Amino acid sequence: MAVNVPGVVMIAIFYLLVLGTGIWASFKSKRKQKKSAATGMEMVLLGSRSINWMVGIFTMTATWVGGAFIIGTAEMMYTPSMGLIWTVVVVLAYGSSFIAGGLLFAKQMRERNFMTMLDPFHFKYGKEVTAILSLASLFTDVTWVPSTFISLGGTMSVVLDLSFILCVWISAVVAIIYTLMGGLYSVAYTDIIQLVLIFVGLCICIPFVLMNPSTVDISQTLMNNTLNAPWIGQPELKKIWIMIDDFIFFALGGVGYQSFHQRTLSASSPATAKISCIAAAFFILIFGIPPILIGAAAASTDWNQTTYGSPSPYKRGEAAIVLPIALQHLTPSFISVIGIGCIAAAAMSSADSALLSGASVFTSNIYKNILRPQASEREIQWVIYTSVVVVGVTGSALTSLKNSVLLFWFIGAEAAFIIVFPQLFCVLHFNISNSYGALSGVLVGVAIRLLSGDPTIGLEPVLHFPGCTLEDGVYVQYAPVKTISMLSTIAAILLFSYLASVLFNKGVLPEKWDVFKVKAQHSPVPLSPVGGAIEEEDDEKLNITL
Questions:
Q1: Rounded distance, CA 48 to CA 267, Å?
Q2: Largest pairwise CA distance in the chain
Q3: 511-531: per-residue pLDDT in tens?
Q4: Segments in 266-332 forming alpha helices (H)
Q5: Spatial CB neighbours of 86, under 8 Å, sequence gap ≥ 6
Q6: Pair 137, 361: CB distance under 8 Å
Q7: Are 265 and 115 in contact (CB under 8 A)?
Q8: How do residues 222-234 score in pLDDT, each as one tens digit?
Q9: Which of 218, 358, 393, 476 could, after both became Cys, cross-link 141 (CB 3.0–4.6 A)?
Q10: CB contact at 8 A, 74 and 295
């Protein structure tokens, strides 16, 4: 198969449009900095905290609407054991993630003018505990980058017949360049272009997919076993707790990513931050519709009548790339390249978020707060630039591992849910929490999760929760083990924090053993805002000027 030259040209146009937008935003960022009192780090990482509600909604939505979201949604729809039921649960969970973040964290974080989501730990727990949690957060971002580029490289290589590695590195270079040039401003404004391309492009592709002669009317295959299994899905009743576990995992795990909080902290006011979250929850549901329809069409297609041939993608083990396969074989070539451009835009909208997120955590919470507190403004700027490049290059290089990277991403996502989210929830909402509880929470949560096992990574369970059964020589947990681990983390944080506070403040243990100075924290003081900034009122007028 020859290289799809028209497709390559179209992708080049898409990339130039995104890059051009990023360069324009970088000039806007520089003009904005001259007019404001924001530091260089605040300008690059948070856009001078001046992102209005309109841009905020777009960039918040784009954080989750990436290549993995688009391709993964179509895959779930096409997979018989999941189908529409499981897909709706996951998409609703993504939307709920924004609502949970908006209600539980956006106001508190933005009012205190934190630089990253790790700042509350630095003020309350000190450097040691913050360093551990910062590394966990940094790991989630580094593993997010390759998982995003894998979905993009696989899609482009299928339709354009280009090298997987070439597709990944070109995309990475473009994302790194505009992120370096304008920081959050470039990321936010390119998110607008990328979301428009995603929605319009996929909507153009949908009629061609649905009206292909090889595709049966999807309303007839919703619950009927016409060509393939009904696309409504066939989840087993015994998996109901797994479905609930996944919903809670996606709904609350997303709040454990720095990229989410970067959007709320960059908002022009606490009210803007909350509005952006709530609105994004609605918009992500809309963006889930196109891949759902394409997945339903793929499940309603007689693949023997297409250029793809028999057996079907599911039987060939290619369900994971059913969306690019559908675009290639169910639409004209000039339409399929538009769809590929959409997926490229989706992947880059998440990749740039991960690049800037990782750079934020390393620069602010590790380098400036721990390694070099006396670092100059210029030095910090260079650390940010270097961090973006290192995260981007490392993430892109890891794509060569493919299966191993997906394992890393799996671990990173669970770290965000089981470690970071409970810690952030407790440090903001419970005055009793302290360093002893934080460390105990990490140990308890991780231990329970590891002892629960997971067949996808070949980890045998030691703890057998109710419903754990042996299937084909492998133990399968039907209990919500991820949620149990997360709740165990919260319980451990609060319990051991209380115990440490009582033991040291009552004199049961000598003060010299109190390495984290819990006794000095006996009268809790509200977390201080970064730089002593004054809290803004919720009723601040929203700036709607682009």
A1: 9
A2: 80
A3: 888 888 887 665 444 555 444
A4: 270-287, 289-299, 322-330
A5: 76, 233, 235, 243, 246
A6: yes
A7: yes
A8: 887 777 788 888 7
A9: 358
A10: yes
